[in-house]
């Protein structure tokens, strides 16, 4: 039944696409002030360059916590009659109504990175993301392998309640709880602000000198965490794992500050997100969920083709 719904919707979108202004596909992300999301932009641009029927715009709030601004960006895209939308929702509830409005307006929406709340699952046509729960478990397994099954591990998270955070951090903690006697300290929420993550980590390292491990769950959080570890002279004293793969995090891996980083296919989210919208506009069938994957990058494999294809 769900597949039939998508086929019917795809046909409707294909009919209405010709009326959209300039065939624009709006890519709207959680913030433009992040290398991760700029790598999504590069992927979206690559998809657009491979065809000539559509243009692409890229936008997002100044910070991931500016949820109302992201809602307004989607509203503006609907009002100017875009052909389709690729959206990374900063809040699973707040973005739902406006995504539903896009659907009611005949505009296909492809969600990337973080899921919307379940009640809005019929308002978009595909979800492209890392399997964040599987990724969280993968990081937890690495933590246990490196730090052992006892002691304290701090969790440095980003924005509470975001779909990716719920899966990534929740499944990390669940796996740790089910497979070890490790005590979790936190989680602490940086609001995806590097400076806040640095300050939080500095305080936690000082208050918990017996930490055996620490996990920074997204790019700005992991960067702030890494800088705090360096400033505290703790590099190599505890198992530090990060998430995402910008230049700062790569340097931390090479220098031994971070044991490893779990890197998402951010370029693939942008490229496949735009291509999926184009497929919908052409009346093609698309998968409900497209996994864009994670690569665990450490000092041993950081120069491999597999790692270099996802680092940015």
UniProtKB/TrEMBL annotation:
<dbReference type="GO" id="GO:0030246">
    <property type="term" value="F:carbohydrate binding"/>
</dbReference>
<dbReference type="GO" id="GO:0030313">
    <property type="term" value="C:cell envelope"/>
</dbReference>
<feature type="signal peptide">
    <location>
        <begin position="1"/>
        <end position="22"/>
    </location>
</feature>
<keyword id="KW-0732">Signal</keyword>
<dbReference type="InterPro" id="IPR028082">
    <property type="entry name" value="Peripla_BP_I"/>
</dbReference>
<dbReference type="InterPro" id="IPR025997">
    <property type="entry name" value="SBP_2_dom"/>
</dbReference>
<dbReference type="Pfam" id="PF13407">
    <property type="entry name" value="Peripla_BP_4"/>
</dbReference>
<comment type="similarity">
    <text>Belongs to the bacterial solute-binding protein 2 family.</text>
</comment>
<feature type="domain" description="Periplasmic binding protein">
    <location>
        <begin position="25"/>
        <end position="285"/>
    </location>
</feature>
<protein>
    <submittedName>
        <fullName>Monosaccharide ABC transporter substrate-binding protein (CUT2 family)</fullName>
    </submittedName>
</protein>
């Amino acid at each position: 039944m769900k597949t039939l719904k998508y086929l019917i919707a795809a046909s409707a979108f294909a009919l209405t696409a010709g009326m959209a202004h300039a065939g624009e596909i709006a890519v709207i992300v959680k913030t433009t002030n992040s290398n991760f999301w700029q790598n999504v932009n590069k992927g979206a641009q690559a998809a657009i360059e491979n065809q000539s029927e559509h243009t692409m715009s890229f936008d997002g709030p100044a910070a991931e916590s500016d949820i109302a601004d992201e809602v307004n960006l989607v509203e503006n895209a609907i009002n100017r009659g875009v052909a389709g939308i690729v959206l990374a929702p900063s809040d699973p509830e707040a973005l739902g109504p406006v995504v539903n409005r896009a659907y009611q307006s005949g505009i296909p929406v492809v969600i990337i990175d973080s899921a919307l709340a379940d009640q809005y699952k019929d308002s978009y046509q595909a979800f492209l993301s890392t399997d964040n729960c599987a990724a969280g478990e993968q990081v937890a397994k690495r933590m246990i392998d490196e730090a052992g099954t006892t002691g304290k591990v701090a969790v440095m998270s980003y924005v509470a309640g975001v779909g990716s955070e719920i899966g990534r951090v929740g499944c990390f903690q669940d796996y740790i709880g089910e497979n070890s006697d490790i005590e979790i300290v936190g989680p602490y929420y940086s609001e995806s602000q590097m400076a806040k993550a640095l300050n939080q980590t500095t305080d936690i390292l000082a208050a918990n000198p017996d930490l055996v491990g620490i996990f920074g769950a997204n790019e700005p959080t992991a960067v702030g965490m890494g800088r705090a570890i360096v400033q505290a002279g703790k590099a190599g004293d505890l198992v530090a794992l990060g998430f995402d793969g910008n230049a700062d995090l790569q340097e931390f891996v090479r220098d031994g500050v971070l044991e490893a980083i779990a890197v998402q296919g951010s370029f693939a989210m942008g490229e496949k997100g735009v291509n999926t919208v184009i497929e919908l506009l052409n009346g093609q069938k698309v998968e409900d969920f497209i996994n864009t994957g994670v690569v665990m990058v450490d000092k041993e494999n950081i120069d491999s083709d597999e790692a270099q294809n996802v680092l940015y």
